[in-house]
Design goal:
By secondary structure, this protein is of the alpha+beta class. Helices cover 34% and strands 20% of the residues. Among the domains are: 395 residues, 3-Layer(aba) Sandwich (Aminopeptidase); 133 residues, no CATH class; 94 residues, no CATH class. It contains 32 helices and 42 strands. The strands form ten sheets. Strands 27, 28, 29, 30, 32, 33, 35, 40, 41 and 42 form a ten-stranded mixed β-sheet that branches. Strands 1-2-4-3-5-10-6-8 form an eight-stranded mixed β-sheet, with helices on both faces. Strands 16-15-18-13-17-14-19 form a seven-stranded antiparallel β-sheet, with helices on one face.
């Protein structure tokens, strides 16, 4: 409204030239406006309101806001008997998430019967062939058209407005026949929060004259862009993790409708043309076989539509579907044909090409044409699509099928918070889940490190996910430890790395749910059947009992549970005194591992209802707290009044933003602070932080750096300021290339170095550090210690081969560096006595990509190092790169994903997390962003430990800066 009022004050001649009015073709010679974005044979009912009536402009002339799209969708539902509107959720910013169901009135009158019929076909167990044929003959095929899951890829949602109008209003025989045979779901604006961020940027950069330079801010936007949702998550990667309300709201409706076609409309570079599926290799090995053949059929249909207008297009080339969390891949693993569209991003004013100008309206026309072409193909191929869908699912649930004899077993864990997260995900994805009611012994199993185990006992209480179930393809894609790409894809990838020095893969190749969640699991090569009870994951949450604390010395919560940190942080924020266990304790028979929380009566004598406050916060978290009346721990365990129960300092957290910070890492940590820990915190502009009063904070997080746009390290002035702040008592946390930046310079802040910085130098201190860590866990026998005679002792390095000369090491490292992964899961051995590993176990699987290879030795602490030692018979002492490996051991590095042997050698025994004292403060470095996609729960616990426990465990207070 304001922008139109301001325009009214301008001279009329100027107003006529603004982007708020249609741009005259004479102003932009060569601009190719398509006369109509609708089919020529369309006969739109004038009783159905057109988009211009609600938007105030024709589709494709400008970009519609989220509110305009929603309002028009509701108006269509009111006006047309072909349309029903469903609100399936709300975004973080409270915007409605809606879709339209468009079909013939007869189909809309039986939507429940259609959904029930699709459910029966989707689970063909016990389905008679006659019933199957009846359903296939009777049911319309369902298509789900999803638009603009990336909020700044705007043409999708604008084309959705045109598509839903055309389907609602067109009276032609072709459309009426199509809607008799199809139910079309139009999900017009999959990311309304991101779109509004993008719209704000458009509003702020519109000028008085058209701007057709795709390098201009009107086209590029600015940090944090509109791609992600409110917390800047990429919703097109969230389908397998379902962390976000947009995804969590959408999945149950997709599963209720069971579409045979799922369109995902995107945009790409402004100078590109139009790309659509099918994808090139690598393909996820669990995709249904008809994905490729039917993909070609649908591609041919779109190609014919584009050829009619001489519009350029291409298929595949850079689009791959190995990662199963993309919209089109996830939908395909559910049985639909997932189809990707990628339209050149043009913004409102159009873009100058080498040969001509191209309009935004044309980009909308491309998306509309593709959508209608796919609907026509689905109508034509309806019977074939149904047949392939049911046949494949029948094979998936068969004992002789690809998943006939495999079960994924999640071992019991004391980390109830994390197990709840898993059960919640299983409920959202609607997988079938069982639990063992007693121990079961199996002949064979394999673990997350690729070790084959024989005669394995599965503990009572283990969760069992039997792969032989209707959605077994998606289950396998999410829980299989080590999905592998085809030999041809692997060959192509290797050739590209060697010939061009770059990867063909643009997403992570490791994503396994149990590994990302930090839960121990096994794969058993059989369909487990004995001693199982069916589990309803949605009903598993229990309300913790209120402790009897009348005479309690303290209320305690186990550090095994991730939610203990949230309890501590929220209580500290309320002003209560909280303690955390630096070593294991046991009070009143309650086992309290490292990281356990205690709120004592003595520390909180000024709080009349300290018990009520603690129990209220714990109940909100669903976390069990217990009362203890005795502060003495048995044996050598930590007494409640001793130094090992540290009084924590309230975290005062700042998160660096803007500048060259990676918005994905920033958003994931922001989400963690808001929704997992529940902490108030501040976002600081990186470009101004060097002159801010940092004394207000005792924890600062430096996100991973944004590398796509050539973003460099933080400024020297900021690093110098942070150095002073850390030395005054702050806890500085940095990940990825932000961690790398702290190791650089003539006088770096930290002792940690990267491998390329030290590979040509003296590596003996780093090797000695590994010897020390190994020997600390392998003490000499008592008879060796208590002997009397002096003897020459063998040095740890006596049998280790010598390193090559410095020049050879540098050359070798340059060679190995080119094979660093796009993203793979690595196994990290853990120092289980370190407070940063509270809530973990003896190893952590976590992501590694083009991450810094962190080199550290004492006095730097290394709570997590890459690689897990495993006994290997007749193995001699040797070297992996620079790192010694003891005799009789091998180092398991790769847990899942593509990690070339050269990369495994390069990162072996590097630090994944370091912690070191710097003055009165500390610096904690992560090799890879720990909060990746909000789903890396094991690594996120380490970060949460750093934030909540760090100010009390590893630094001195208070911070006083000059």
């Amino acid at each position: 409204m304001i922008r139109f009022l301001l325009l009214s004050l301008l001279p009329l001649a100027v107003v006529a030239q603004t982007p708020y009015e249609p741009v005259a073709e004479a102003e932009l010679p060569g601009l190719n406006y398509e006369p109509s974005i609708y089919p020529q044979e369309a006969d739109h009912d004038p009783a159905i309101p057109g988009p211009a009536e609600r938007l105030g402009f024709p589709v494709g002339q400008r970009t519609a806001t989220s509110a305009q799209i929603e309002a028009y969708a509701r108006r269509l539902a009111e006006a047309s008997e072909r349309v029903e509107l469903v609100e399936y959720g709300r975004s973080f910013e409270g915007r409605p998430l809606v879709y339209l169901v468009i079909s013939s009135p007869g189909n809309l009158a039986r939507t429940e019967a259609i959904q029930d019929g699709m459910a029966r076909l989707a689970d063909p167990r016990g389905l008679e062939s006659s019933e199957r044929e009846r359903l296939i003959s009777d049911l319309p095929a369902v298509a789900w058209l999803g638009y603009s899951i990336h909020g700044n890829e705007s043409s999708g949602s604008d084309s959705a407005v045109a598509v839903m109008y055309h389907l609602a209003a067109d009276r032609s025989d072709a459309t009426e026949a199509l809607l008799d045979e199809l139910v079309v779901i139009v999900d017009p604006n999959m990311n309304p929060d991101g779109r509004e961020r993008f719209m704000n940027a458009l509003d702020q950069h519109r000028g008085l004259h058209p701007d057709v330079d795709d390098q201009s801010l009107l086209h590029t936007g600015y940090w944090p862009y509109g791609r992600g949702n409110h917390y800047l998550f990429d919703l097109n990667r969230d389908w397998i993790y379902a962390r976000l309300p947009e995804t969590r709201g959408r999945i149950p409706h997709v599963l209720r409708w069971r579409p045979l076609l799922f369109v995902d409309a995107h945009e790409m570079g402004a100078q590109d043309t139009y790309m659509f599926s099918p994808a090139r290799e690598p393909h996820n090995p669990h995709l249904p076989p008809y994905r490729r053949s039917m993909g070609q059929v649908f591609a041919d249909g779109k190609a014919r539509a584009f050829d009619r207008f001489a519009y350029p297009y291409y298929t595949g080339e850079w689009h791959e579907d190995f990662y199963p969390g993309y919209t089109d891949a996830w939908a395909s693993l559910r049985g639909a044909l997932g189809v990707l569209y990628e339209q050149a991003r043009l913004a409102e004013d159009g873009v100058q090409r080498d040969t001509h100008l191209i309009s935004y309206r044309q980009s909308v026309h491309h998306q509309v044409m593709a959508s209608l072409a796919d609907l026509e193909t689905l109508q034509r191929e309806r019977a074939s699509m149904f047949g392939q869908f049911v046949s494949d699912r029948t094979r998936v649930v068969s004992p002789r099928g690809p998943y006939g004899n495999r079960s994924f077993v999640i071992l019991p864990s004391e980390n109830r918070g994390r197990m709840n997260d898993l059960l919640d995900l299983l409920a959202v994805q609607q997988f079938e889940v069982h639990r063992l009611t007693r121990e079961v012994r199996v002949a064979r199993a394999s673990d997350q490190l690729g070790r084959e185990l024989s005669g394995q006992t599965l503990p009572e209480g283990s969760l069992v996910l039997r792969n032989r179930q209707p959605d077994g393809r998606l289950l396998a894609a999410m829980f299989e430890f080590d999905p592998q790409m085809s030999t041809s894809a692997l060959t192509t990838e290797r050739e590209r790395v060697l010939r061009e020095g770059r990867s063909t893969i643009y997403d992570t190749t490791g994503w396994n749910i149990s590994m990302m969640f930090g839960l121990e699991a096994l794969t058993v090569p059989q369909h487990l059947e004995a001693h199982l009870e069916r589990v309803d994951p949605a009903a598993e949450r229990s309300t913790p009992a209120t402790p009897d604390a009348d005479n309690a010395l303290a209320l305690v919560a186990s550090g095994a549970d991730d939610r203990a940190n949230a309890l501590a942080g929220r209580l500290l924020q309320r002003g209560l005194a909280v303690r955390a266990a630096r070593t294991a304790s046991e009070l009143d028979g309650i086992e309290l591992p490292i990281g356990s929380i205690a709120v004592t009566r003595n520390d909180n004598r000024d709080r009349a209802d300290w018990v009520g406050e603690v129990t209220a916060v714990a109940a909100d978290l669903g976390l069990e707290v217990q009362a203890v009346g005795h502060g003495r721990a048995p044996g050598e365990l930590a007494d409640l009044g001793g130094r090992e129960w540290r009084v924590l300092e309230q975290p005062r957290v700042a998160l660096l933003a803007r500048g060259s910070n990676n918005m994905l890492d920033f958003g994931a940590v922001w989400y963690l602070l808001d929704h997992r820990l529940g902490l108030r915190h501040s976002h600081l502009d990186e470009d101004r932080a060097a002159v801010m009063d940092l004394r207000r904070y005792n924890v600062i997080y430096l996100p991973e750096r944004w590398t796509w746009g050539g973003g460099g390290p933080p400024s020297p002035a900021l690093i110098e300021r942070l150095d002073d702040w850390v030395r005054a008592g702050g806890t500085l946390i940095a990940s990825g290339n932000a961690a790398r930046a702290l190791t650089a310079g003539d006088e770096p802040m930290v002792r940690v170095r990267t491998l390329e910085q030290v590979i040509g130098e003296d590596l003996e201190p780093y090797q000695d550090g590994l010897y020390r860590e190994w020997l600390a866990d392998h003490q000499p026998l008592p008879e060796q210690v208590w002997g009397h005679a002096a003897q020459t002792q063998p040095m740890p390095w006596a049998d280790t081969p010598a390193l090559p000369a410095a020049e050879e090491r540098e050359r070798r490292d340059q060679w190995l560096r080119q094979f660093m992964p796009s993203g793979a899961l690595v196994a990290n051995r853990a120092d289980t006595g370190h407070w940063l590993n509270a809530g973990g176990h003896d190893y952590l699987t976590a992501l590694f990509s083009s991450s810094p290879v962190l080199m550290a030795h004492a006095p730097v602490e290394t709570p997590l190092r890459v690689g897990v030692y495993t006994p290997a018979e007749e193995s001699e002492a040797g070297l992996l790169g620079w790192a010694p490996v003891p005799a009789g051991q091998e180092l398991r590095v790769r847990a899942g994903g593509l990690l070339w042997p050269e990369a495994r050698e390069r990162i072996a025994s590097a630090a994944w997390v370091t912690r070191e004292s710097v003055g009165a403060g500390q610096v904690i470095l992560f090799a890879h962003a720990p909060a990746f996609r909000g789903a890396q729960l094991g690594a996120m616990r380490v970060l949460e430990n750093a934030i909540i426990l760090g100010p009390g465990m590893g630094s001195s207070q208070p911070i006083e800066l000059p």
